Amino acid sequence: MSFNIQAGIETRYYHQYFTRGWRHVLPDTARMPNLRRIAETIRGFDLVGLQELDAGSLRSGFVDQTAFLAETAAFPHRYIQTNRPLGRLAQHSNGLLARCPATTVSEHRLPGRIPGRGALMVRFSTARDDLLVVLLHLALSQRARLNQLAYIAECIADESHAIVMGDLNCHSSSPELRYLCAETGLREPASTEPTYPSWRPARNIDHILVTPSLAVEAVEVLDAPLSDHLPMTMTVSLPASLQGPIQAAGRAPTIPSEG
């Protein structure tokens, strides 16, 4: 699953961006009940990429939302990247929840005129092979997105098995995604279902892309309007080389990389 949770804020109408915009900077009593509903929604999945979380600041009541969702939805492993640390005011983050431990985890700062975009790369290894999962939340500018996806394409060029997912802020037929797929061989089956805005979906800007080695069995956008985005889900069968026990016993140290 890929899900932009908007820091736990439930938005049902456009005007709420203005009338309830204070919820992005101040604590809100409705946030925790909504996070619990999000936890119930993600509970049945094996791998969940979350965007727009807060790592613990004033607006979230100093709750690390990645840790809260991992604990509430019973995920034993969580990995987090804080891209815009604004002290006590906000800790803008992305997080990956997993049923299996990662072998390595690395954080990458993505190029862009406005800092604060990153890629979280999490590798899962068996005795015979590796699966790389890349979690993204791309920029609003098309030029920045092209540069960011060029960086991602270079990072995963030699990967046999990869999943790239997140809020990419562009549609499936955009030049940015066409470029990424052409450079890496990634594909996005059944990619036209819109995910934004959650109350009247019109744009497909949330994506899960996979290498041809991963057999896609189903793709679905869930009717779970708990954010301003809907969650995108995909059922994937792994090749034989990725089936078996994951080698790592726990999280490896995070290795920052320059974007």
Classification by helices and strands: alpha/beta
Give me the CATH superfamily. Answer: Endonuclease/exonuclease/phosphatase
Spatial order of the strands forming the largest sheet: 9-8-7-6-5-12
Average pLDDT for all residues: 92
Strand content: 25-35%
The total number of structural domains is 1
Strand element count: 12
> So, CATH architecture?
4-Layer Sandwich
- State the separation between the terminal residues, measured CA to CA: 25 Å
Low-confidence stretches: 249-259
* Helix content percent band: 10-25%
CATH class: Alpha Beta
Shape: globular
Oligomerization status of the protein chains? single chain
Can you walk me through this structure?
There is one protein chain. This protein is an alpha/beta fold. It has a single domain (2-257), classed as Endonuclease/exonuclease/phosphatase (Deoxyribonuclease I, Chain A, 4-Layer Sandwich). Helix content is 19%, strand content 30%. The chain contains five helices and twelve strands. It has helices at residues 16-19, 31-42, 65-72, 142-156, 175-184; strands at residues 2-4, 47-54, 77-85, 91-98, 104-109, 118-125, 130-137, 162-167, 206-210, 215-221, 232-237, 254-257. The strands form three sheets. A six-stranded mixed beta sheet has the order 9-8-7-6-5-12, with no helix packed on it. The chain has a four-stranded mixed beta sheet with strand order 1-2-4-3. The protein has a two-stranded antiparallel sheet with strand order 10-11. Strand 7, helix 4 and strand 8 form a beta-alpha-beta unit.
